[in-house]
Amino acid sequence: MEQEKFNDIKKAGISGIIGNIFLLLIKASIGFITNSQSMIADSVNSASDIVASLMTFIGNKISSEPKDKDHNFGHGKAEYIFSLFISITMILVSLKLLIDSACSLISKNYFDFSWILIFVCILTIITKFILYIYTKKLYKKYDNILLKSNYKDHKNDCIVTTCTLISIILGFYGFYWVDGLVGIGISIWILMTGVEIFIESYNVLMDISLDEKTKETIMNLVKEHKDIKNCYNLYTAPVGYKYLVVFTIAVDGEMSTYNSHKLANHLEKDVEKLDKVDKAVVHVHPVNMN
């Protein structure tokens, strides 16, 4: 399963790199020839997408490395480190685009309308929509933040390029100011997406706790064992895309050590069956029931 996941994410990264290089070359060439600020902004967005796909490829390769004596829980957090890099790249690109587009709007730059601009937009939308469907399908299968970053990026690109297409069509009818305005809109959109991915990656790297719904599921599993008198000190920490779960159960002090640990082992296996749990550790605390 892990090898299949690694291969699928690797394919998604390579597909993104190839597709975005192709789109970058076309959009940058046409954008500078026609002086379309929205198309230039779109081409820079494709450049950031190449970086994102490359980060996905590298992050996936590192995170797929098995556990070793120096990394007892594997290398899964590499996914979040590289998704953090992706988000920072997106934020920096968006700020540069915002400045350039605002300057274009203020200085009233005009672009040369060409039907090839329309063609490039339609080609981009089709290419990105195919990549979006492909990557989102993999994300639903593996719940991987690198895939999430990429499929959101592809979806955003479909919306962004649609806006670019609208601005070009309006430019044909003389509304040239829309081109710079759309460039600003694109940059803000990229900025918001980058910040969202940054926050999610940062939270995991700072050992954010497991979500409340999964915690509630764990407590329900505990309640299924009538010999457990109480449960407390539930601690969770992310290890890659899954979590380490540690908690203490209280049992009758008269219960034998063998039976109490057998109960704890059984509970650990139940908890580890949950999709978001990598490892469960249950401590046993005997209490006086008299």
Secondary-structure topology with pairs:
Layout: H1 2-34, H2 37-63, H3 78-106, H4 115-142, H5 145-172, H6 177-205, H7 212-223, E1 228-239, E2 242-252, H8 257-272, E3 277-287
Parallel strand pairs: 2-3
Antiparallel strand pairs: 1-2
Helix pairs in contact: 1-2, 1-4, 2-3, 2-5, 2-6, 3-6, 4-5, 5-6
Structural write-up:
With 290 residues, the chain is mostly helical. It has 2 domains: 2-205, Cation efflux protein transmembrane domain (Alpha-lytic protease prodomain-like, Up-down Bundle); 212-287, Cation efflux protein, cytoplasmic domain (Alpha-Beta Plaits), CATH 3.30.70. It has 8 helices and 3 strands; from the N terminus they run αααααααββαβ. The chain has a 3-stranded mixed beta sheet, with helices on one face. β1 and β2 form a beta hairpin.
What low-confidence regions span 5 or more consecutive residues with pLDDT below 50?
A: none
- For the terminal residues, how far apart are their CA atoms? 49 Å
Number of domains: 2
Under CATH, the homologous superfamily of the largest domain reads: Cation efflux protein transmembrane domain
Tell me the β content.
5-15%
Q: Determine and state the CATH class of the largest domain.
A: Mainly Alpha
- The shape is elongated
Order of helices and strands: HHHHHHHEEHE
How many helical stretches? 8
Strand arrangement in the largest pleated sheet: 1-2-3
